[in-house]
Design goal:
Layout (H helix, E strand, L loop, with lengths): L8 E4 L5 H12 L3 E6 L2 H15 L3 E5 L5 H10 L5 E4 L14 H29 L2 E6 L12 H21 L4 E8 L5 H14 L3 H9 L10 H11 L11 E4 L9
Parallel strand pairs: 1-2, 1-4, 2-3, 4-5, 5-6, 6-7
Helix pairs in contact: 1-2, 1-8, 4-5, 6-7
Length: 259
């Protein structure tokens, strides 16, 4: 399918690896020029060059911490005029409700709610003026069904979801579609971190921890960054303009719900 976005320009956050990289690759395959962001410069440069070599698109890199005001300012300046925004950030660490203090919640909100909102506020006006834009926020399946050990993530991502619910309906008439992608477990560093926690807590191997988690997924496996990226690219396409304010699960059926 021709996604109809060749020549568009996208900012993809946290895109040196994992789901963000999957989104960047899929958009590049569709002919989209990229502004790629991550905190670590070397992995970011390597990922960007691999995309240039494979897809022949223009790629600019901005190695900053998007949770800081200085990082946001640099990223916004580099992405001025972007047609597509993919918000993404690693999730906060797991734990128990009694583990977290105010500072832990502030860090989670900065990364998983306030930074995405800041980027939307900066880039949406230009999209609306041009009459076309796409925003995809990578959140979590925990928005639909909370995961007890991910209370920090549950809280911050639910806040972002509420913001998007209202904002998406205010900008849709200007040709801008905002939606959220809710990943379950994918084969990324996040999965390794969670499986490491289970391995340590239960005294089992990483392979056993992964098999144990995969058994809870009807698809029987972890997702891949490539299939996640393809879903993101479709939501950014010319064909997705009537999809507004939705929370779309990509979890292999793990979230057991009817609606």
């Amino acid at each position: 399918m021709d996604l109809g976005i060749t020549g568009k320009r996208a900012l993809v956050c946290a895109s040196s690896k994992g789901l963000g990289l999957g989104c960047a690759e899929a958009l590049a395959e569709a002919g989209v020029n990229l502004v790629m962001n991550a905190r670590g410069e070397e992995p970011l440069l390597q990922a960007a060059q691999a995309i240039r070599d494979r897809y022949g698109v223009e790629v600019e890199t901005v190695a900053v911490d998007v949770t800081t005001q200085d990082g946001q300012a640099k990223l916004i300046a580099a992405a001025a005029g972007a047609d597509i925004l993919v918000n993404n950030a690693g999730g906060p660490p797991p734990g128990l409700w009694s583990d977290w203090e105010r500072e832990d919640f502030i860090k989670a909100l900065d990364a998983n709610m306030l930074a995405p909102i800041a980027l939307m506020k900066a880039l949406l006006p230009g999209m609306m003026e041009r009459g076309w834009g796409r925003v995809v926020n990578i959140t979590s399946q925990s928005v639909k069904a909370p995961i007890a050990v991910l209370g920090l993530s549950n809280s911050a991502r639910a806040g972002l979801t509420g913001y998007v619910a209202g904002t998406s309906r205010q900008v849709a008439g200007s040709g801008v579609a905002i939606n959220n992608l809710l990943p379950g477990i994918h084969a990324t560093d996040r999965a390794v971190s969670l499986d490491s926690g289970v391995s340590s807590q239960q005294g089992i191997s990483m392979e056993e921890a992964k098999a144990q988690r995969a058994a809870t997924i009807p698809a029987g496996r972890y997702g891949t960054r490539q299939e996640f990226g393809a879903a993101c690219a479709f939501l950014c396409s010319q064909h997705a303009g009537f999809i507004v304010g939705q929370n779309i699960l990509l979890d292999g059926g793990a979230t057991n719900m009817t609606l």
